[in-house]
């Protein structure tokens, strides 16, 4: 499936273009949280991996994150982000202080995820992934099962096993008002050791 305008206005993304306010609130919450851990400042080099139309990237820019860029594979989403003056990078490879991976890893194969972590080196990654509770057969959330581009279905334990095979890390569950860790969603701050 191509990640075009139709993708962002169908299935679980039916109202995606009206979610900018939610992303502003998410940015405020995670900015406050990460600043307390000294993981976010105006000078932090940040990548929003799978930025879509750039709502989170733009919201973090408005909060003073001056060294942030977004990466996405959707030409349509990149075009929308650029209309809103969101800085876009065409490679995720490099060194970062912080990388956001919200609702993107489930769209990738294990090999692509390994490549990502080996080539996108960060002090911290904030991830959110829909998970399975039946050993990877289906996602816990029905809406996640409806997206044909969700190709990587794992339990939290299976996700941790994959991450452990790639990098040494400490995992801290993240719970804010807008994004949070549940049985069916892994929302974590992954800190490289």
Biggest sheet statistics: 6 strands, mixed
Q: Give helix % range.
A: 25-40%
- CA-CA gap between termini: 36 Å
- Strand order of the main beta sheet, please? 2-1-3-4-6-5
Radius of gyration: 16 Å
Class from secondary-structure proportions: alpha/beta
Give me the number of helical elements: 7
**Average predicted confidence as pLDDT:** 93
Q: What is the number of E strands?
A: 6
H and E string? HHEHEHEHEHHEE
**Portion in strands:** 15-25%
Based on Cα principal axes, name the global outline.
globular
- Low-confidence parts: none
Tell me the layout of helices and strands:
Layout: H1 5-8, H2 20-36, E1 46-49, H3 55-62, E2 68-71, H4 75-83, E3 94-102, H5 110-119, E4 120-130, H6 142-145, H7 156-166, E5 169-173, E6 185-192
Helix pairs in contact: 2-3
Could you please describe the fold and organization of this structure?
33% of the residues lie in helices and 21% in strands. With 193 residues, it is α/β, with parallel strands linked by helices. The chain has a six-stranded mixed beta sheet with strand order 2-1-3-4-6-5, with helices on both faces. α2 crosses α3. It starts with a helix and ends with a strand.
């Amino acid at each position: 499936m191509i990640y075009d305008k139709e993708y962002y206005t169908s299935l679980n993304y039916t109202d995606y273009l009206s979610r900018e306010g939610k992303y502003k609130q998410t940015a405020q919450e995670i900015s406050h949280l990460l600043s307390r851990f000294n993981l976010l400042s105006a000078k932090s080099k940040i990548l929003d991996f799978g930025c879509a139309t750039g709502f989170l990237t733009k919201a973090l820019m408005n909060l003073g994150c001056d060294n942030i860029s977004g990466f996405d594979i959707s030409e349509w989403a990149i075009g929308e982000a650029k209309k809103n003056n969101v800085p876009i990078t065409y490679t995720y490879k490099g060194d970062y202080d912080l990388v956001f991976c919200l609702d993107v890893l489930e769209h990738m194969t294990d090999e692509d995820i390994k490549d990502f972590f080996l080539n996108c080196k960060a002090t911290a990654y904030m991830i959110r992934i829909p998970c399975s509770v039946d050993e990877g057969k289906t996602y816990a959330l029905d809406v996640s099962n409806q997206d044909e581009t969700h190709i990587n279905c794992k339990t939290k334990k299976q996700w941790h096993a994959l991450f452990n095979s790639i990098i040494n890390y400490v995992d801290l569950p993240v719970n804010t008002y807008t994004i949070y860790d549940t049985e069916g969603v892994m929302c974590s701050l992954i800190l490289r050791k």
